[in-house]
Amino acid sequence: MTEAYIVGAVRTPVGRRKGGLSTVHPADLAAHPLKALIERTGVDPAAVDDVIMGCVSQFGPQTMDIARTAWLSAGLPESVPGVTIDRQCGSSQQAIHFAAQGVLSGTQDLVLAAGVESMSVVPMGSTVTAALEAGLPLPYGEGWAERYGTQEISQFRGAELMCEKWGFSRDELERYAYESHQRAAKAVAGGHFADQIAPLAGVTDDEGPRSDTTLEKMAGLKLLREDGRLTAATSSQVSDGAAAVLIASGQAVRDHGLAPRARVVTLTLAGDDPVYMLTAPIPATRKALKRAGLTIDDIDVVEINEAFAPVPLAWLKELDADPAKTNPNGGAIALGHPLGATGAVLMTKLLHELERTGGRYGLQTMCEGGGQANVTIIERL
Q: What residue ranges carry the coiled-coil annotation (predicted)?
């Protein structure tokens, strides 16, 4: 039986906006974990079949197929191609899916899945802003308007709609956010991320966690919407970062003397209401568990992207999942969310946490623009 194995995963620190990584060109930012992963696994880079990289804001320095420019910027063989993909915030998790599917199909043996986003250099929404300035139409055409009208479509509105639907109060959101910072600060202090991070530009640790934050400080922040419940404290941080994951077939493991660290159990996708936008991890997780023949209680570690606090809170409630197993080292509220990189960052964190704790199964999911979600379940070996 053909299997897809994870044989390595590495990431940069996640930098704050205008922080320590903000002066690094996006292609060089993306090149760093690619080169580090090749060095750490010892694999012949010329044997890699493809580089699949997620990037959301493919604008300016993040254009021209950054998967290819990053690989070449890392000084790696010209013979290896690269492709850049966009599934919004799930772009590099989708890169992992495509890499694993290439291996599972028997047409590829070594595929490098990665992600990058420099939100300091290319601000979120740059492509839409540029289109408007050029007099071009918005992404939503007549067919969309016929189906959904002209109502506001945004992640901020979607998060507020989730708060209303599940009845989350501002206090509940802030308590979740506070716990995310506490977990992240503890993980950094405990060295939980040390082995997975390749330091860059003098930055050795994630810059986002605020160990000194308090519920009182959070309560004093301005609401993002006048009639809403969310603040900057209960939203993911704007960040810079990159990560890479190497997927191998059994044949590649034997040929290159690699050590499989995890097996890909299942890969699933789901769509949900694009107005709510952020709810698809719920049906996608149910679908993945059913396909894998597992229950939520079988999962030892969960990484769900904290785009906004109501996303993991609603997921926990609907799945009846254990909060202690979910984002045990904090999430994007504390650690940041470099859009196109986050999927590969989460997989890197998931793999290392399973190894650190001796857990067997890990599940990763994240909400994505358009009301979509990926779910990946892996088994530690």
A: none
